[in-house]
Amino acid sequence: MKRSSHQHEFRCIACGTRVDISKRFTCPICGELLEITYELRTRRQGFVNSLKKPPPYNVWRYRELLPIGDAHPISIGEGGTSLTKSDRLANMLGLTELYFKNEGQNPTASFKDRGMTVAITRAKELGVRTVLCASTGNTSASMAAYAAKAGLRAVLIIPSGKIAKGKLVQAIIHGARIVKVSGNFDVALGRARRMAEQRDDLYLVNSLNPYRIEGQKTISFEIWEQLGKRIPDAVFVPVGNAGNISAIWKGFRELKQLKLINRTPRMIGVQAAGAAPLATAYDRRQDRIVPWAHPETWASAIRIGAPASWRKALNAVHESNGSILSATDNEIRRAQRLLADHEGIFGEPASAASVAGLIKARRTGLIKRRNAIVCVITGHGLKDQSIIQSE
Ligand code: F0G
């Protein structure tokens, strides 16, 4: 079947305005972020047919629900990560069904590759020559690798001295141009957004680019398929810039809209306590965040004070009857250790926030013994060796 990129639209998540975009990702009326929508009805049969293919799973298996026309995917084998059933931690936490979605198994060792394969394929489709992002490390590592594969130039803006060495090594080896700014991620993202606005030749691939979100929503499709087309009761996700929790929720929402599932999981976001504007807004029942000027946490990947996708994340949590928790650095450290020495999974500090959140949720009774739980382990621990300095 011939596909065309015109089969999707962009809709403002706040005012609902339908927008025609190529390179800008905010609503011209109210300035909020856009999301991609499809006429799902016409895509249902194609999607269902693609599910009949035997595994392996991967991002492009779900192409019917991706916003890419006939373009050849820029792929390095993203997605298809393990969903591992827990024995020891489940036991310890008094849970009957606990799984880890191990996103560290992606080509550059984080979930970012799922979104990047789609965003870089789109960049090629648009004919851009240079891609740009700000990053706490993983987005830049992923962008650099996919840009290399696509033959694009990569420019990344990083907060000086604030990203884990392993991630910087990845960006360097894949040949990205690195611009360091003093200040934190939020400053770097502000700079990247302004550069992309001023220069038509730069294509921004941060998660405010809705093509990223489309790729990342395949985490949900895989979880659903790997559980034998069952839906967990809750999904725990570390939250930084808040793109991923929004993406995972969009995936489940679309499965429900397609009537392939009749209920959705609760989305539980987990922020580091030192960088928790969303958890704070959630606790205070506020419908918007107050950005934190000086976010601080050991989990450098989620050291973010002004999450760009805050509104999408709050929507995800409210619509799914979920929650946003926070975990202290000590709780995150302990969770990282537990995951490593009870399950054999080495997640980077930010990844362990999902487990730290689950431990807390068991203590407070938010999660019950028989709830089926998935914790998303977002990136591999080898990227971040700061554990040595914290010994
Ligand atoms: N876990 C890891 C390992 C991350 O690298 C990130 C974000 C998150 C969780 C949070 O995901 O931002 O979608 O809420 N890293 C970004 C980066 C910010 O630049 O690599 P989010």
Provide a descriptive summary of the structure in words.
The chain has about 400 residues and is an alpha/beta fold. It has helices spanning about 40-50, 90-95, 110-125, 140-150, 165-175, 185-200, 210-215, 220-225, 245-255, 275-285, 310-320, 330-345, 350-365, 385-390; strands at about 10, 20, 35-40, 85, 95-100, 130-135, 155-160, 175-180, 200-205, 235-240, 265-270, 325, 370-375. It has a 6-stranded mixed β-sheet, sandwiched between helices. Strands 8-7-6-9 form a 4-stranded parallel β-sheet, sandwiched between helices. The protein is globular, with a radius of gyration of 19 Å. The N and C termini lie far apart (about 55 Å). Bound molecules: ligand F0G. The site of ligand F0G has 22 residues, from helix 4, helix 9 and helix 13.
Concise summary:
By secondary structure, the chain is of the alpha/beta class. It has helices at 40-51, 88-93, 112-126, 138-150, 165-173, 185-198, 210-216, 218-226, 243-257, 277-283, 310-319, 329-343, 349-364, 386-389; strands at 8-12, 18-19, 34-38, 83-85, 97-102, 130-134, 153-159, 177-181, 202-204, 234-238, 266-272, 323-327, 372-377. It is built from 14 helices and 13 strands.
